[in-house]
Amino acid sequence: MVTVEHNAAVAVELVVFTVLDEQLAVLAAVRQVMPFRNRLELPGGFLLPDEDLPEAAERELWEKTRIESARVYLEQLGTYASADRDPRGRVVTVAYLALVPGMSADLTGGSALTEGGRTHEQDDGEDGPELPEERAAEAEWVPADELLDDPDSLAFNHHRILGDGVERVRARLEYSSLGTLFCADEFTIGDLRKVYEAVWDTTIDPRNFHRKVSGTADFVVETGRVTSGEGGRPARLYRLGDVTVLNPPLRRPA
Amino acid sequence: MVTVEHNAAVAVELVVFTVLDEQLAVLAAVRQVMPFRNRLELPGGFLLPDEDLPEAAERELWEKTRIESARVYLEQLGTYASADRDPRGRVVTVAYLALVPGMSADLTGGSALTEGGRTHEQDDGEDGPELPEERAAEAEWVPADELLDDPDSLAFNHHRILGDGVERVRARLEYSSLGTLFCADEFTIGDLRKVYEAVWDTTIDPRNFHRKVSGTADFVVETGRVTSGEGGRPARLYRLGDVTVLNPPLRRPA
DNA sequence: GCAAAAGTGTTTAGCTTACACCCATGT
DNA sequence: ACATGGGTGTAAGCTAAACACTTTTGC
């Protein structure tokens, strides 16, 4: 068997989005080692032997956030290999986009993450091997706008990767029903509208949005239950439907 | 300076499309070495030291096809690293999509490419430059349909990469003016329509297409010249315009 | 004249937008 | 009663699909 010569260190990096406090938020951690020590970075790590790329992305997501992949959408975002992007040598990074629920009670209750603050992530040893040169940092949700506004807020070329991720998730919400993944298991159409408004950073007419969503077959399915005590007429509760591609799309304003 | 351990061989692969004979065609070469000897493969090669990914893609395009990057569109398509995709070891492949003109006289005349699968056309005397690499084969244009229909027609996982490439170029034509890159320097709106029909494998109403293209600002710009002797009323000739994003898009039929 | 391809006009249908208006709850 | 958010109705405007029709060449 002929073998090939390895010429790079391949890593995966995650751009994990959620919607918290009606804002698009991304998962970032304070980097503990040089280079870029004390700078925020996107979670990620090197590919393990015999590991596929989606596998590696799922593993990193679990290790860094304890988020199960069941309710998570993962999609390859792009690959970055600028020779000068990592001062330590030749690193090729495959970035993945991940969308996780933000309003879900079980997520905020059952994970080590806190909203807008820092919390310790317990490393109870049953997961994969710790990377030798990188200690686990505390991951936290940071508003995407905050990081986008300052090109030096993130380590390496992560600012560019984040920018690509934001553009991708904004486009995905136009042409797919993936926005429902940011909601809890049951949600109102108003909840979903707030997700769209957060990601697109715009306002949407509630009446037209309601008609569009409820009129698209299988976008959302009624559960029969309604909300109560939210300060207005009770809203019908929905679960996400089967449709992933919206036709016609929900165009965002120019 | 800390260094990182290399854990994979990173390569770039090209899905080079053109439109020949009113068909979407892709560049492929007969593989000369094991594994997958005598199978068709997409052109590509390993990343060189200190080389960026777009650089490597441009270099491979030039080495394999002698196509200058001036009139070529290059875009990252995706990265593939299935552990079993290459029997020789751990290979991570970054695939690039390339669009090159197909009706251009200088392309068909000055390259070593043949049109229409394995059948040589008229370049009997001028065999084209022998490619310097030892395992380089003669690249040829193959109709994309032909390869898509047979999952075993291509080496490695190239069939899947080609499928992703076809889907990408079809989507690009909806939302961008990149279809003009498949045309010669000067082209008629009918030429452009034939490009769309070839890529989408459909028929388009010539009148509505004409109105749509000529009515979109900067999609195409008139040269003032017209065709003659094409068997009908002379058509105005156009060059590609500045616009890359079509708003509203040119939707393909479902 | 006739075929063929280019280009224009017109009708119809579907979708989006803006907004008037009603519904059902908490206080 | 009134504020608040949920939900429906409707008319105007834009876009695309379908197709009748005119234009300009080669034969």
Question: Mind sketching the topology for me?
Answer:
Two copies of one chain form a homodimer.
Chain A: E1 9-20, E2 23-30, E3 40-41, E4 44-46, H1 53-65, E5 73-80, E6 91-99, H2 105-110, E7 139-143, H3 144-149, H4 158-175, H5 189-200, H6 206-215, E8 220-226, E9 236-240
Parallel strand pairs in A: 1-6
Antiparallel strand pairs in A: 1-2, 1-4, 2-3, 2-7, 5-6, 8-9
The first copy, chain A, binds a DNA duplex (27 and 27 nucleotides) through helix 6.
The stretches of 5 or more residues of chain A where confidence is low (pLDDT under 50) are 103-133
Mean pLDDT of chain A: 86
If you consult CATH, what is the topology of the largest domain in chain A?
Nucleoside Triphosphate Pyrophosphohydrolase
Q: How would you characterize the largest beta sheet of chain A?
A: 7 strands, mixed
Major protein interface: A-B, 36 and 35 residues
Which class of secondary structure composition applies to the elements of chain A? alpha+beta
Helix content of chain A: 25-40%
* CATH class group of the largest domain in chain A: Alpha Beta
CATH architecture of the largest domain in chain A: Alpha-Beta Complex
Q: Any idea what the radius of gyration of chain A is?
A: 19 Å
- Strand segment tally of chain A: 9
